[in-house]
Amino acid sequence: MSETVAETSSDTRQNRRSIVLWGLAAVGVVAGYGTGLWHFMKYLVPLGDKVRYREMFVGPVDALQVGQSRLVRTPAGETFLMARTEDGFRVLSDICPHLGCRVHWEPQTKQFICPCHMGIFDEEGLAISGPPAEAGQRLVALDTVVRGGSVFVLIKEA
Ligand code: FES
Question: How far is CA 33 from the centre of its chain?
Fold first, then answer.
């Protein structure tokens, strides 16, 4: 009789241990596959992860006269040319998307020029001549905000 009770007690402990182990395994499987499924669904249906921007002060409005340009360096070390036109400020990468030469601003024609292969970009940064135009390239642009007599560029946060 006591042997039967001991066996039953041992079987019960064994069953509980099995239930706990199966429970932990099930939680692991659900967590693992659930995470994978979540990332797969995010890939299929982007939830519109919001891109955040912050303003970076680049100088007073009066620091540039119409037609002038100056270099702007972002905290990440990227360089941009800020040019002032009659319509406002343009801030475009000074790196040509063709082969990486430096572009400069031509105020008379209101164009950004790459001297390496005569790539020409309009004031919005769209390539209109040369190899970059043939490849449909453009200069990377930063949006600007003018407020309180100061110019800011919008920098994408990581
Ligand atoms: S590198 Fe600018 S046009 Fe070729």
Answer: 28
Q: List, chain by chain if needed, residues with CB within 6 Å of any ligand 1 atom.
A: 96, 98-99, 101, 114, 116-117, 119, 130-132
Atom 1 in ligand 1: which residue has the minimum CA distance?
A: 99
Burial grade of 104 (CB within 10 A; 0-12, 13-18, 19 or more) = middle
Q: Give the pLDDT confidence of 26-58 residue by residue, as tens digits.
A: 888 888 888 888 778 877 776 666 889 999 999
Residue 105 near residue 112, CB atoms below 8 Å: yes
> Which atom in ligand 1 lies closest to the alpha carbon of residue 114?
2
